[in-house]
Amino acid sequence: MEEINRIFSEMKDDDRVQQMRSFTAHGKVNTFDHCCSVASLSSRINRALKLHADEETLLKGAMLHDYYLYDWHEEDDGSHKWHGFKHARTAARNAKRDFAIDDKTEQVILSHMWPLNVSRIPRSREAWIVCVADKCVSLKETLFHR
C-alpha cells in the first residue's frame, strides 16, 4: 500500500500533470480531478475484486488517460470536433513524450474510450479496470457536477 501511495503522489504532484487542472473534463470537473477520481476508483476496484492488476500500470494509466492538455469544450479551428474518438491517442502521445510510459500503460490510455473506439478493445486487466472506472466517474460527473 505504501508503494501505491508513493506512485499516486508522484503522479499527482508532477507539474505536467498539474496542467490538467486548467481543462474541463465533464460538468464543472477539471481533467486533473477526473483522472484522480478514475485512479482512485480503479485502485479500489482492483483491491475489492482481488483482480491482481499491476498497481503501477493501473495508476499511471488512470492518471494519464486524459492527458490531452486542451479544453475540448472551447471553440477552436475544428480540431476538437471528434474529441471522443481522438483524445486517447493524443493523451497517449503526450504521456509517452513526457513520462516515457511503457507499452502496457500506453494501451491502458489508448483503450479507455472503448466501446466508442470500437477497434481499441482493452487487452489487459489494467485496461479493463480503467475503462470501467472512467465510465462510472464520467457518468457521475456529467449527471451530478453541473
Main traits of this protein?
146 residues; mainly alpha; two-stranded antiparallel ribbon; 7 helices; globular
What does the model show?
By secondary structure, this protein is mostly helical. It contains 7 helices and 2 strands, in the order H-H-E-E-H-H-H-H-H. The chain has helices at 2-13, 15-18, 31-48, 55-64, 83-99, 103-111, 125-144; strands spanning 24-26, 29-30. A two-stranded antiparallel sheet has the order 1-2.
**Low-pLDDT residue spans:** none
Tell me the total number of β-strands: 2
Structural class by helix and strand composition: mainly alpha
Strand order of the largest sheet: 1-2
Give the topology string: H per helix, E per strand. Answer: HHEEHHHHH
Radius of gyration: 14 Å
State the end-to-end CA separation.
Answer: 34 Å
Strand content: under 5%
Share of residues in helices? 55-70%
**Average residue pLDDT:** 89
The dominant shape is globular
Biggest sheet features: 2 strands, antiparallel
Produce a short descriptive summary.
With 146 residues, the chain is mainly α. The protein has helices at residues 2-13, 15-18, 31-48, 55-64, 83-99, 103-111, 125-144, and strands at residues 24-26, 29-30.
Set down the secondary structure blueprint.
Blueprint: H1 2-13, H2 15-18, E1 24-26, E2 29-30, H3 31-48, H4 55-64, H5 83-99, H6 103-111, H7 125-144
Helix pairs in contact: 1-4, 3-4, 3-7, 4-6, 4-7, 5-6, 6-7
